[in-house]
Structure formats: structure tokens, C-alpha cells
Write a structure and sequence with these properties.
By secondary structure, the chain is an alpha/beta fold. It has helices at residues 16-30, 43-51, 70-78, 94-104, 116-127, 149-159, 164-171, 175-189, 194-203; strands at residues 3-4, 7-12, 37-40, 56-62, 83-90, 108-111, 130-131. The strands form 2 sheets. The chain has a 5-stranded parallel β-sheet, with helices on both faces. A two-stranded antiparallel sheet has the order 1-7.
Length: 208
């Protein structure tokens, strides 16, 4: 069975005008869903906030800040046990940085040039995630796989037999980014090809 987990959003950005404006927009949008929206002005402040709570966090991380940020910042937050997704946000070139942030473990890259409405639309699937529960049997060992929302979407499309180009078109990302996600899926599932990935995903109920 699937259990819905309430998630909290954390915006980490050193630009107060953008941070506070986005925080206000997201709060108004998600307050009725019981989603808490918090803000932090630095990675260190964000880490302290996360470590002092037992909530499940989705982190929106500005990848161009003084101190800890960038690809290293994504990896640090992704490794925290109660951070379920890291979303990279930046004014940097999207086509150049999306594959890099995906490779570091980010679920998606959101440009600061996007409207708040666009960002909200992209965040909604992350907030609607469900935990995967595998019933205990004598022959099945429960296993939790740390796949991002984007990786789950790619895995679903792989299971439907779509090639990389169609997956890229469907998700509106580059083929290079699709390949990065597939490599990370193979690594996480400990498989070597698409067929093995789909079979393992079916076994552990990872497909939508």
C-alpha cells in the first residue's frame, strides 16, 4: 500500500527579494495542503534548520551563493536523510547547467527567469509523491531506493518502451540529461540495462 507523506519546502537563496517573494507565493499556493514553506539565506542556515527538525524536506537551492552552493551543495543536501528532493534554482544558463545539476543529484533545474506560476506547476508533482511500500514475504526483501521524482518519471517512460529522444521531448529536457538520469537509475537499482531496470522496478513497485 502507499502512504502519503507531508512535505515541507525550504528555499535557500541569498537574494532576499527573490527568496521572500517566492516564499510568499509558495506559502499562499500550498498552505491549504498543509505544506510548510521555510526560507534560509545560506546553505549553513538551511542545514541547521533541516537538522533540527524531523520533517521531510524538498530543498530549492540557489546554486550560485557565497559559501557552500553549486554542485557540492546539491550533493550535501541530497545526502541528508530527511531531504527527499533537491531542486536547483539559478539565473545561470539552463541548457548548460541542467545536466550538471542532474548529475549531482538534483530532481530538476528551475531558472529564476521562470514565473512563480511555472515553478508552482513544476513543484506540485514533487509534493504529491508517495512512499513505496513492499509487503514483507519470505522471498521479498523490502528495499527503499532513493530515486528523484525526475528519475521515477524517466523510469516510467522506459517501462513503456520509449527511446531517449521521446523521453527527452516528453519531459522537456535534453537527451544528455535523460542519459544522466538513466545512468543514475541503473546505479541506484544495481542493474546494467533497461530490461533489468524495469523488472526490478516492477518487483519493488516503483512504477506508477
Amino acid at each position: 500500500m502507499n502512504a502519503i507523506i507531508k512535505k515541507s519546502l525550504l528555499i535557500i537563496d541569498d537574494h532576499p527579494v527573490y527568496r521572500d517573494a517566492l516564499g510568499e507565493k509558495l506559502t499562499l499556493e500550498f498552505i491549504d495542503d498543509g505544506v510548510e514553506v521555510a526560507v534560509a539565506s545560506s546553505a549553513n542556515e538551511g542545514l541547521e534548520l533541516i537538522e533540527n527538525t524531523d520533517k521531510h524536506w524538498i530543498v530549492l537551492l540557489d546554486i550560485l551563493m557565497p559559501g557552500l552552493s553549486g554542485l557540492a551543495g546539491i550533493k550535501v543536501f541530497k545526502d541528508l536523510h530527511n531531504v527527499q528532493q533537491v531542486v536547483a534554482i539559478s539565473g545561470l544558463d539552463e541548457h548548460a547547467w541542467e545536466p550538471k545539476t542532474a548529475s549531482a543529484g538534483a530532481s530538476m533545474f528551475l531558472s529564476k527567469n521562470n514565473t512563480a506560476e511555472f515553478i508552482i506547476r513544476k513543484l506540485k508533482p514533487l509534493l504529491a509523491l508517495q512512499t513505496n511500500y513492499v509487503a514483507k514475504t519470505e522471498n521479498v526483501e523490502p528495499k527503499e531506493f532513493r530515486l528523484t521524482q525526475r528519475q521515477r518519471e524517466v523510469l516510467d517512460l522506459i517501462s513503456q518502451g520509449h527511446p531517449n529522444k521521446l523521453i527527452a521531448d516528453f519531459l522537456d529536457i535534453s537527451e544528455q540529461t535523460v542519459k544522466i538520469h538513466i545512468n543514475q537509475i541503473f546505479k541506484e537499482l544495481r542493474v546494467f540495462n533497461r530490461t533489468q531496470a524495469v523488472l526490478k522496478a516492477q518487483k519493488h513497485q516503483l512504477l506508477s
